[in-house]
Amino acid sequence: MNEYGETNKKNLPPEMDAEEFRRFGKQMVDYVADYLENIRDRKPFPDVSPGYLKELIPDKAPDEAEQWPDVMKDIERVIMPGVTHWHSPQFHAYFPTANSYPAIVADILSDAIGCIGFSWASSPACTELEMVVLDWLAKMLELPDCFLHSSEGHGGGVIQGTASEATLVALLSARTQRLHQILGDKFSHSPDEGIISKMVAYCSAQAHSSVERAALIGAVKVRLLETDEKFSLRGETLQRAIEKDREAGLIPFFLCATLGTTSVCSFDNVLELGTVCEKEGLWMHIDAAYAGSAFICPEFRPLLNGVEHAMSFNFNPHKWLQVNFDCSAMWVKDSRLLSDAFNVDPLYLKHDNQGAIPDFRHWHIPLGRRFRSLKLWFVLRLFGIKGLQERIRKDVKLAHQFEELVKADQRFEIFGEVVLGLVCFRIKGSNEVNERLLKTINDDRRIHLVPSKVNDTFFLRFAVCASRTESKDVKFAWEVIQELTKKISDEKK
Amino acid sequence: MNEYGETNKKNLPPEMDAEEFRRFGKQMVDYVADYLENIRDRKPFPDVSPGYLKELIPDKAPDEAEQWPDVMKDIERVIMPGVTHWHSPQFHAYFPTANSYPAIVADILSDAIGCIGFSWASSPACTELEMVVLDWLAKMLELPDCFLHSSEGHGGGVIQGTASEATLVALLSARTQRLHQILGDKFSHSPDEGIISKMVAYCSAQAHSSVERAALIGAVKVRLLETDEKFSLRGETLQRAIEKDREAGLIPFFLCATLGTTSVCSFDNVLELGTVCEKEGLWMHIDAAYAGSAFICPEFRPLLNGVEHAMSFNFNPHKWLQVNFDCSAMWVKDSRLLSDAFNVDPLYLKHDNQGAIPDFRHWHIPLGRRFRSLKLWFVLRLFGIKGLQERIRKDVKLAHQFEELVKADQRFEIFGEVVLGLVCFRIKGSNEVNERLLKTINDDRRIHLVPSKVNDTFFLRFAVCASRTESKDVKFAWEVIQELTKKISDEKK
């Protein structure tokens, strides 16, 4: 009874046919619109205990195919009770993760094309659109020309899965570059002399844990350096650390500077750090995973000054630029240094146009890659630069609104500085009382926050996350916090 | 003029509202159904030169938002001319990549929920569904109980992005385990004694390039070992290599065995290899990226015998099990060994239920992760085990059909053995004539193949890839090959 189904049924397994997909897919589109438009009605944090889900479904896969309406029904029964709603206007934990309608639609197309873009030949559009939209994005950030595919040199951008992977790729490329410098013709990825264990990477003590992890994977040492009173890593601190390590016979080779740390959204001084790195021959990578999106606004672009000293730069459009996860944009000045670190080239992946255009598999850890530039392309076109800037500005404004509310209450203090969409705050007093407040807030479940700790000071982080967050939600969150502060204060009495 | 739009418009950027999304999303669902149902009308390999795409679109992002119908129009104008159609029944390159309607619909939901599942608390459903469906899948493969989350020990499955990442995770975990064994209390991820550069990993000469790459990232040595006449790595060969390396003062620590090599779909002897690894204290990882899906059929399950000796096992449901990329399933016997290798635990990621349930961020390279188990769940339910088995059997049957056609033509020979859905073949004669045939086939563009080379013998690979491939397509492909063989033979005269 359908246009395509009958032919299929004759030759193929009893799987979903195109007509069923049209109905199922459209029903899911409606479900998704309803979910997101009514997300205010759901509490941001779920009320389940570990192991809740396995009680709700069978312990083995069905032998026979089920019907899709039964699967649809199970979304509310099985899945939703255990979802942390990152797109609730009452979700203020971690950092934002993007979720926009244009990106969702682009992903439908990406899934349907379903190409694996490891080389140009494996799907030319996949490589080429990525080159063009990464250049678009580089121009929006006013990155120096040397980071563009369209420039003369070997620079360019690539989509990584996560900032963690970008940091790892940068560190491994720097390690390979340094091995080449030291060993020359005797280069090996696994040199006998124990050189790698002498290599030292640096970052600030507030850098993301992924830097430590990249060092651990790369088998190099890592130093978490002290920051100044604004939680910013300064040039002098790096300079001293390099000198000390050199005196100990070690080999400084890599710095990961952070613009917008996860704990407090502080900014390392990349102008100073870049100068030191150039003088001392270190690879400077800049991780601006969260903050990077803000640099498309002229008023925030100065925070990126000094990027010209970096060998590589990364931020996550999947955080604050409306492109659904995963889409981490990374630019390098010399892509040959990435290829050097990763190139192992079997015949079944070679093609006639090799060398004329990047084979992005040499730019990252996985071999396979999805057609992720489609969602970036859809988002940039359907928001326009102005639309994306407005979103950034709205969120920063809401953060300052929350900051003012905190400041107006004598029981509280702001921790660090509010620059973008994150407000760190605490009850004036012990860590314990702040820990109790955090637990009370999350147990209450009307809003959701996570804490952090810097220099042994425990504080709460209020991040403006969901695109639907408005002024009234900020006010609501503050009222909840005040109410629960009173509650724990009363309990204590 | 819409149900939700007006409120949005007042406070938010001029972005797509829910009503527009409903129309856009549904139009995309129809586009996708039309694309896939009519994919036979498109040539599998595009006729473009490097740089084609940048001529078709602007060189910067628009300032103002565009309209979605204009984006829709550009799909056929800009994207499709440069797409390699992996789901064309005439595409026989590489290995299959999955593409099914249930998985596409599941991804819409995954995108909309848009949670980042790095810890249990960040979205309990994301972690828990993954645990359950990986157990479902483990049971379908008849993996030993020790690989199940529901078993007593510390085993379990996790979704990685790609098999390359699974191999890397296994190698790094093995490296850490061995460092612990050697250094004891003095353990360090970056030990001073140059121990890591003494470590040796092994795989067969036909193993995927990602093993070599994992070794390179891990800064350990790697040996590509010779295989037997069936391109299978045997226990004795490994035993000899271990002994030789030990004599040279090196530290054998890891074997990646392959079930279904990329070049020829050959199978290492994991029963023999596993015995050697257990005796010699090596971590055996099994990479069954492509072939693993077939093991859900009882008739192919014996190929997996010996998996009980493995510390880790991986295959890609995103290749041959109807789950769109990326979904690489990995199981380990002792997940603590993964956490050991990757655990760096900042406060902002801690939560109350830590330890009670896996935080999957410790099981892989990236921190962030999508809700990928949804597509596995949808696929397993909407195909059922029988539906998935039928697909495997259909493809193997088609491969044997192609094999018979090749064998019936005296000019050709089969290279290796046809076990699953890959047929390696060549013109009896020089590598050059086979290279010319391959180039002629791909220039012709009616079908698409890639070559490989083993022991200096160049051959063509015919993989049954798309779910829509039928007997008539196999016949068509062979007719094209015969026609073009005649053409190059005539040209030579």
The strand count of chain A comes to: 11
Task: Note the main sheet of chain A.
Answer: 7 strands, mixed
Spatial strand order of the main sheet of chain A: 1-7-6-5-4-2-3
Instruction: Tell me the quaternary state.
Output: homodimer
Global geometry of chain A: globular
Terminal CA distance of chain A: 72 Å
CA-atom Rg of chain A in angstroms: 25 Å
Quickly describe the structure:
With 493 residues, chain A is of the alpha/beta class.
What does this structure look like?
Chains A, B: Pfam families: Pyridoxal_deC. Chains A, B: Belongs to the group II decarboxylase family. Chains A, B: The modification N6-(pyridoxal phosphate)lysine is found at residue 319. 2 copies of one chain form a homodimer. Chain A is of the alpha/beta class and 493 residues long. The first copy, chain A, contains 14 helices and 11 strands. The first copy, chain A, has helices at residues 5-11, 18-37, 68-79, 101-113, 124-140, 163-183, 209-218, 235-247, 270-280, 317-320, 336-342, 373-407, 431-444, 471-492, and strands at 156-160, 199-204, 221-225, 251-258, 283-287, 312-315, 328-332, 412-414, 422-427, 450-454, 457-463. In chain A, the strands form 2 sheets. Chain A has a 7-stranded mixed beta sheet, with helices on both faces. Chain A has a 4-stranded antiparallel beta sheet with strand order 8-9-11-10. In chain A, β8 and β9 form a beta hairpin. Chain A starts with a helix and ends with a helix. The model of chain A is unreliable at 1-13 (pLDDT under 50). At the A-B interface, α2, α3, α4, α5 and α6 of A face α2, α3, α4, α5 and α6 of B.
